[in-house]
Each structure stands twice: as C-alpha cells, then as structure tokens.
Amino acid sequence: MTETTEQNRGPEVETSRRSQPARRGGGDPGSRGRTTIADGVVEKIAGLAARDVEGVHAMGSGLSRTFGAVRDRVPGGAKSVTRGVKAEVGEVQAALDLEIVVEYGAPIADVARDVRENVIAAVERMTGLEVVEVNIAVSDVKLPDEEEEEPERRIQ
What we know:
Radius of gyration: 27 Å
Number of strands: 4
Distance between the termini: 104 Å
Shape: elongated
Helix content: 40-55%
Structural class: alpha+beta
C-alpha cells in the first residue's frame, strides 16, 4: 500500500514541477540590480511640490533669487526649480532643507506645515525613499506693495 501511495504522488509532484516556470538568476526580476536616485532629482521634486503650496511666494534667499532672475532672462536659460532646495539622499532615506519666501498675511506655521506635508508626499510617492526630515527656513515675507526683484537692465 505504501508503494501505491508513493506511485500516485510521484506523477502529481512531477506535473506540478513542470507547470511552474523555471527561474534563472534567483528572485523576482524586479528586484535584481540597484536603483540610485541623484540628489538633484529629489531637489526638483521637492522644489515643485513646495511651490504648489498656497502662501509660498518664492524659493531661496534674496541673493539666490536675484541671480536666478538674471539666469532666467538669459536666452536658453531655464528656471531653476531647485532654487532654495538642498537634498541629502541615501540608499533608502532622504533629508531636505528648504528656504522659502512667504506671502504677507499667510500664517507661516501653517504654510511651513503644508509645504512639509506636500514635499514629503511627493518625494516618497515618486522615489520610494523615506523622507526623514524637511527643514524649512523662512527667509523673507513678500509684502503686497513690494516690487518683484528684477535686475537692472544694462541695455535700454
């Protein structure tokens, strides 16, 4: 009786082995190899996410905004979405420092919280990295009667 049971199991086991595709290289194909994400990629994502928050007027300090305005006017120069953003990216985690200008009248604590939440959500969703911290420095407040900082034109 033991021989009969073993004989009955033999073909079933053999059949189930044939129905599974043979895996080569071991493991899930999606997990073979490494993916690295550059600091600049995270900085772009964070910069765009921060600018989407209501109450954020601009990113960066006055000096960096001035240089950015000059660069933006140069033919072929592109707007820098990373202005005011610094990222440190590891293998599984990222930390960000942001410098923002808040519009006058906007509650700074609320704007900072909203920026932090939006940046963390965007970076984690797009990169899969864990954002361990988002430090925000409010460098200025944009007053309603202030003109935009534009460099003086040298050619009239």
